[in-house]
Amino acid sequence: MSERLLKCPLCKSGNILNHQLVKDHAVSKKEFTLCRCGDCTLLFTNPRPTEEEIGPYYDFKEYYSHEDQVRSFTQWLYQKIRKSSIRRKVGLIDSLVKRGSLLDYGCGTGEFLQEAKRQHWNIHGIEPSEKARIQAIGKLPTEVLGTLDELPELETYDVITLFHVLEHIHSLRKTVKKLVNHLKSNSYVVIAVPNPESADATHYGSDWAGYDVPRHLYHFSQKSMTAFQEQFGLELVRIDPLVYDSYYVSLLSEGYKNPKAGLLTRYFKAFKQGYRSNQRAGKPGNYSSNIFIFKKK
Prior knowledge:
Blueprint: E1 2-3, E2 16-23, E3 31-37, E4 43-45, E5 48-49, H1 73-96, E6 101-105, H2 111-118, E7 122-126, H3 130-139, E8 144-145, E9 157-163, H4 172-181, E10 183-194, H5 199-204, E11 218-219, H6 222-231, E12 234-241, H7 245-257, H8 263-281, E13 289-296
Parallel strand pairs: 6-7, 6-9, 7-8, 9-10
Antiparallel strand pairs: 1-5, 2-3, 3-4, 4-11, 10-13, 12-13
């Protein structure tokens, strides 16, 4: 069973058109339709699996963000890059607020929260996936919850982060409104999302791993992120690039595009394309993935 959206899930415009067919390479091997909003440019999977039925689409061994054990060289490399990224993420939130209160929505297996706690942040995490949540609770027994509704209604935070999470949220507007309500005045929302207009996305086309249908429900351009801030009363502070993402996404994309190619060939081509994508980006906002830092008005 699936659900069909008749309006844009971000701006509610009815001006939507079929845009592209993209294959789920990871699990079902089925094709899904991406629609495009003619007003805010958001791309979104339509029709899409319901929230109740999407769970099995996450159940594959290469979904590394829900797994903290190392089972392959690629996963080992992913974990090394993730450790470096975690340090940079904590540095980022420290640059906004020094050792305040943090809510990480979609906290995965909890490594970022664990490091933030070591740096004396007061933390909470929300993780809908039971598999990932169990691993996070093993590290942080009292700070990780399953839903936003489990938070005290009046609990507010200096920083709320969503690192590669926004694109997974079925109830997009409802969830973001709840998150904004949990922000203190003049506090920050930090959102990392893939960029469907990046050079690597253009190069790989429908084989671009950043689409990751149907797990990724939405794909945000800079224009749609402008619509995002307008919809939720936020102010864009700055955009930071995620330079490692182009290499990882290119590696997955090479496997989708040329599944019979050898591992060394895929790594070589992915490194070349990842480097080229970063060079062509030129400025934050054009990279394979970007961090948008918003302030509550």
